[in-house]
Every structure is written in C-alpha cells, then in structure tokens.
C-alpha cells in the first residue's frame, strides 16, 4: 500500500465524489484534504466540470497550482499553462461541436437539449447550481453537455451520426457529454502523466476516485482505484480486478473511506 511519503498523485472526480451529489459540500473530506496538502501530494481534479468552474474550486480547496482535467478529458491544464485539448490540435473546439450538433438536429430530427440551447437560469434549475456557477458551467471549451429527449432507437442513430463526425457520447452523473473521440478522462490522464513528471526520479503512484460511468477510463489507468457509491442508474464497470475498492459511503464520505483504505 502507498504511504504519504511516496510520490503520490490523487486523481479525483468532483460531483458525487469529492463533492456531495446534492449539496456540493466537501466537508466530510476535509481531514484527508489537510493530510494530503501537508504532505505536498497533488490533488488532480478530473471532472466533467469546465475549467472556469474548476479554477475557483481549486482556490476554495487550497490546491491552486495542481494540474486538472476538465470537461471529461477535453481540457488538461495547470497553473500558467494554456489549456491543451489532450495534445490533439485537430480536435473540434466547442463552437465546432455545437455547429455539428445543430446540423445533425436539423438533418435527422434528433431531440435533445444542450447547454448552448438554454439560459444560465435553466442550467441552474437542472443542476442546483447558483446562477453565477451555472454561467461558469456554460463556459465550455471542448465538449457539450445535453439531455437526451428522444427514443432509444434514435439514440443509437445519434451515436452513429456523431461517430461519423469523429465525436462520441460520454455518460456522466446528470448529463450526456458530446466530445471528440478518444479524449476521455483516461486518455487525458495518460497525457498528463507524460507531461507532468514527479519531483526527482521515478513515477507517480496514482490513486483515482470516481462514482460515475465517465470515471471508468480514469479508474482503469490509475494504480489504485476507488469506486464511490453513487446515484447513477448506470454503475461503474471496470475490467480490472486488482486494487479496486468499493466504498460503502456516498460522495466525500466514500472518498475519505477509499483513501483510508489505501494509504498507510
């Protein structure tokens, strides 16, 4: 098991993991956050949230300077760095993704509602965020979040139409996310570990924590995985068998439970 003096990196989802699914509080994780910060262990947020949402959260959590992964892997960023679309300059940006979605809706009649289609108030109503935080959630760079409002048959056709445009759907805790193919949380973590070496020699020892299907690619990549009990109808399914811990608690309670299990 890893210890606090090892070159540890904590890679964590936010909603339903470090943050409570309903209240967005991290109070139950504060003791572990303090231990990790005291040991200079980077806490890498890996979330469907936007960079505009994550940066103030980093300040509130006192982890400014640590790398983060935003929009399910579309954006990798750390202090004084320009956002990098997972090192793939040919990837569609937000405007191009929204344009493609509008074209598919007009051509094939798909029924869905994306963040680009609604106001900040509507996003706040969907999520429970404040209007200010909803505005940050709409500040997108490399993916679109949407609610599917059509049939399962049309959903399959929608996936196929997206694939023809080099786009894919990723399921999150509340929304479906449309993003460039191969830009998920696992690919983004691979890129980060290549470009963000640990102090000294050797390699990072990674512990990943998440509660939703979109966390699975990240949880497959880390050395130690924590699957936090979640509210999604679709659970987290992993191919790996070793070094996987399933929490009994939800949100930050389960988050702390996982770290207590692994870190000596």
UniProtKB/TrEMBL annotation:
It comes from the Bacteria. InterPro entries: HAD-like_sf, HAD-SF-IIB-MPGP, HAD-SF_hydro_IIB, HAD_sf. It holds the Pfam family Hydrolase_3. Its EC number is 3.1.3.70. Keywords: Hydrolase, Magnesium, Metal-binding. GO terms for molecular function: mannosyl-3-phosphoglycerate phosphatase activity. PANTHER family: HAD SUPERFAMILY HYDROLASE-LIKE, TYPE 3, PHOSPHOSERINE PHOSPHATASE. This is Mannosyl-3-phosphoglycerate phosphatase-related protein. It comes from Erwinia aeris.
């Amino acid at each position: 098991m890893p210890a606090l003096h090892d070159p540890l990196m904590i890679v964590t989802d936010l909603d339903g993991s470090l943050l409570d699914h309903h209240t967005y509080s991290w109070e139950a994780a504060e003791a572990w956050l303090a231990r990790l910060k005291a040991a200079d262990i980077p806490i890498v947020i890996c979330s469907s949230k936007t960079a505009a949402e994550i940066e103030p959260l980093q300040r509130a959590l006192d982890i400014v300077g640590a790398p983060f992964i935003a929009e399910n892997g579309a954006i990798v960023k750390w202090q004084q760095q320009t956002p990098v679309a997972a090192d793939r300059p040919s990837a569609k940006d937000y405007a191009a993704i929204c344009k493609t979605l509008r074209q598919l809706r007009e051509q094939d009649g798909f029924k869905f509602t994306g963040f680009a289609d609604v106001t900040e108030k509507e996003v706040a109503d969907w999520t429970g965020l404040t209007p200010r935080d909803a505005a940050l959630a709409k500040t997108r760079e490399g993916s679109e979040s949407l609610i599917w409002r059509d049939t399962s048959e049309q959903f399959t056709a929608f996936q196929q139409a997206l694939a023809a445009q080099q786009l894919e759907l990723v399921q999150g805790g509340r929304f479906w996310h449309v993003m460039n193919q191969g830009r998920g949380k696992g690919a983004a973590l691979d890129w980060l570990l290549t470009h963000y070496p640990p102090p000294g020699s050797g390699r990072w020892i990674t512990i990943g924590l998440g509660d939703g299907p979109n966390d699975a690619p990240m949880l497959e990549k880390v050395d130690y995985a924590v699957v936090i009990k979640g509210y999604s109808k679709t659970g987290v399914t992993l191919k790996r068998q070793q070094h996987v811990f399933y929490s009994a608690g939800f949100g930050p309670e389960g988050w702390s439970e996982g770290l207590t299990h692994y870190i000596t």
